[in-house]
């Protein structure tokens, strides 16, 4: 079928739906929701069989949905309505949730249901993590079923329950009773309209909220919109929250820093806050998230740096973005950076952690393995917020290259990159530096740099062609479109696709790694690595790839007129584009 995706942004879910439908032989194009008239023109131009909106913040015009079947992906169970579905799921502590694919109609979220799927809501994860993983899995399941039903030409979507029990407006406050009533109504399919989840509901009362409540509020707004608060007599949005088990102080007081994050006291403990965003001033430029210490800058009081070892003792309940552990002959070096981006300092710390891991006797070393982002490359927010973005860009890319070089020159053990979540640009190329790449089935890869106006580095001109061949490498980087895990396996970009839940990915990786470490051929593979590296070095030294790539990158970074600078600023500040990019309008087709 010819399918048009309409979305407010080409976000993670839209990318996944786009790529998965393309894998299944459909012709798929994207139109960003930038106004009613451009959308009408896109429909006239593409004459789609079906319109799907994976992520839409505005309504589709009535003249479009009355003439075409338009399917809306709503991140809530059947009967759930409102603009803040996931916020309420996290706020009320729901143990399970769902996704509904419904037909666009006059009433927002009120159309007939084509498909739905349930999903778990694991404890202690943020809203954005939930959206990119469990919700994304459920959304894809529901979308594929809806497309199949539509293609059959015989399926009749079912109306939502609009009887008396379903007509109640939800004014739940997050109490256990409210949660139970809400869950029962949702399971019954009754309509339940939840209000917009504003800052008045997110506000942290540092004088009375226990740590558990503070963490839940912070995680419910981790990526967007953040929790508006007053800190050091100024207004900030707080992004991300993690409990701390040892530090204590006066509620609301700043206690310590760690790797750019700040620790703040609660009434019964403390929480770590990794990022802050200044409140936008009237008429001022858009603000963006930065590491908390960097955001506060000169306002920061003198605080101790509360370092923790790479190997945290069992039972510690604290935040650290890099950790190491061992299970028999397997070492696990995990890292979780906000948004998947890696700043100069984070790259250097990860390299130090890797050097520590190299001193351990593990036969197999697993990199990553978490349930969310693997890596998205250099930290554009930190670059944009620095005093000299060109210099910071240069330092950041060199720090990334140092890390990749360390992986590529490791010949005394097998390295595995384990991608539980998405990877893009230099982060995708970082993964390729390992001997094997394992990927969760729900992950999406974007192995390209072009959309940020960059040539790319991270030794991609060495690692990408040797995995997929020169022709496919050129195709991936030129087209700049997302790739599913299944497709990545077909072309050799990844070696193993693990079909697991997001929560179960780490355990699945551990089992695979244990089998790899004890496999009869593993020691032989390790012994052959040094000779293979020497053969490649004789053909073309690693330094030659780095020098050629960095020559291109340096020219871009230090040219004030290079598109990279405007593209970076627009990306960081989430500037709405003026039109849908051509490569999305061209899309993918059954002809590839």
TrEMBL record:
- Domain Formyl transferase N-terminal spans what residues? 35-132
> What InterPro entries has UniProt attached to this entry?
ClpP/crotonase-like_dom_sf (IPR029045), Enoyl-CoA_hydra/iso (IPR001753), Formyl_trans_C (IPR005793), Formyl_transf_N (IPR002376), Formyl_transf_N_sf (IPR036477), Formyl_transferase-like_C_sf (IPR011034), HoxX-like (IPR047180), NiFe-hyd_mat_HypX/HoxX (IPR009188)
Region annotation (Disordered) maps to: 516-538, 573-592
List the GO molecular function terms.
Answer: transferase activity
Keyword list (alphabetical) reads:
Transferase
Every Formyl transferase C-terminal domain range: 202-281
Plastid found in the keyword field: no
Q: Which intervals carry biased composition (Basic and acidic residues)?
A: 525-538
Among its keywords, does the record have Iron-sulfur? no
The family database entries (Pfam families) matched by this protein are listed as:
ECH_1 (PF00378), Formyl_trans_C (PF02911), Formyl_trans_N (PF00551)
From which domain of life does this come? Bacteria
Q: What is this protein called?
A: Formyl transferase
Q: What's the source species for this entry?
A: Streptomyces camponoticapitis
């Amino acid at each position: 079928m010819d399918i048009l995706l309409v979305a407010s942004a080409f976000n993670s879910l839209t990318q996944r739906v786009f790529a998965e439908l393309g894998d299944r032989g459909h012709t798929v194009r994207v139109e960003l929701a930038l106004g009613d008239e451009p959308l009408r023109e896109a429909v006239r131009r593409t004459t789609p069989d079906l319109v799907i909106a994976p992520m839409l913040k505005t309504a589709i015009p009535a003249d479009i949905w009355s003439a075409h079947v338009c399917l809306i992906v709503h991140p809530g169970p059947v009967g759930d309505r409102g603009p803040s579905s996931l916020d309420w799921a996290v706020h009320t502590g729901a143990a399970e949730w769902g996704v509904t694919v419904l037909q666009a109609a006059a009433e927002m979220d009120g159309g007939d249901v084509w498909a739905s799927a349930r999903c778990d809501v694991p404890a202690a994860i943020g809203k954005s993590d939930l959206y990119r993983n469990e919700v994304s899995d459920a959304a894809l399941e529901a979308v594929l079923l809806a497309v199949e039903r539509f293609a059959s030409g015989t399926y009749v979507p079912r109306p939502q329950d609009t009887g008396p029990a379903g007509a109640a407006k939800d004014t739940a406050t997050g109490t256990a009773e409210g949660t139970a009533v809400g869950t029962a109504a949702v399971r019954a399919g009754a309509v339940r309209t939840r209000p917009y989840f504003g800052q008045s509901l997110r506000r942290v009362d540092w004088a009375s909220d226990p740590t558990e409540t503070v963490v839940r509020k912070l995680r419910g707004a981790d990526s967007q919109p953040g929790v508006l608060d007053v800190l050091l007599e100024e207004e900030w949005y707080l992004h991300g929250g993690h409990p701390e088990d040892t530090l204590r102080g006066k509620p609301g007081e700043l206690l310590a820093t760690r790797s750019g994050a700040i620790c703040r006291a609660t009434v019964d403990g403390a929480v770590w806050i990794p990022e802050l965003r200044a409140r936008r001033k009237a008429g001022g430029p858009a603000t963006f998230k930065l590491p908390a210490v960097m955001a506060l800058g000169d306002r920061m009081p003198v605080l101790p740096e509360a370092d923790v070892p790479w190997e945290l003792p069992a039972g510690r309940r604290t935040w650290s973005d890099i950790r190491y552990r061992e299970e028999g002959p397997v070492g696990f070096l995990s890292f979780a950076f906000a948004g998947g981006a890696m700043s100069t300092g984070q790259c250097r710390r990860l390299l130090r952690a890797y050097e520590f891991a190299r001193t351990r006797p593990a036969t197999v070393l697993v990199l990553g393995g978490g349930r969310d982002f693997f890596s998205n490359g250099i930290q554009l927010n930190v670059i944009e917020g620095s005093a000299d973005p060109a210099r910071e860009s240069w330092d950041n890319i060199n720090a990334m290259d140092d890390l990749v070089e360390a992986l590529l020159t490791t010949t005394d053990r097998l390295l595995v990159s384990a991608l539980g979540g998405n990877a893009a640009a230099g982060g995708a190329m970082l993964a390729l530096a390992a001997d094997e790449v394992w990927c969760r089935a729900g992950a999406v890869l974007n192995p390209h740099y072009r959309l940020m106006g960059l040539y790319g580095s991270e030794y991609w001109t060495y690692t990408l062609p040797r995995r997929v061949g020169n022709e496919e490498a050129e195709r991936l980087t030129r087209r700049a479109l997302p790739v599913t895990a299944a497709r990545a396996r077909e072309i050799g970009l990844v070696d193993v696709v693990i079909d697991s839940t997001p929560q179960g990915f780490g355990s699945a990786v551990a089992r695979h790694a244990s089998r790899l470490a004890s496999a009869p051929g593993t020691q032989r593979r390790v012994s052959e690595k040094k000779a293979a590296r020497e053969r490649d070095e004789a053909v073309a030294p690693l330094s030659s790839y780095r020098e050629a790539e960095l020559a291109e990158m340096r020219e871009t970074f230090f040219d004030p007129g290079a598109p990279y600078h405007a593209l970076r600023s627009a990306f960081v500040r989430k500037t709405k584009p003026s039109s849908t990019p051509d490569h999305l309008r061209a899309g993918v087709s059954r002809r590839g």
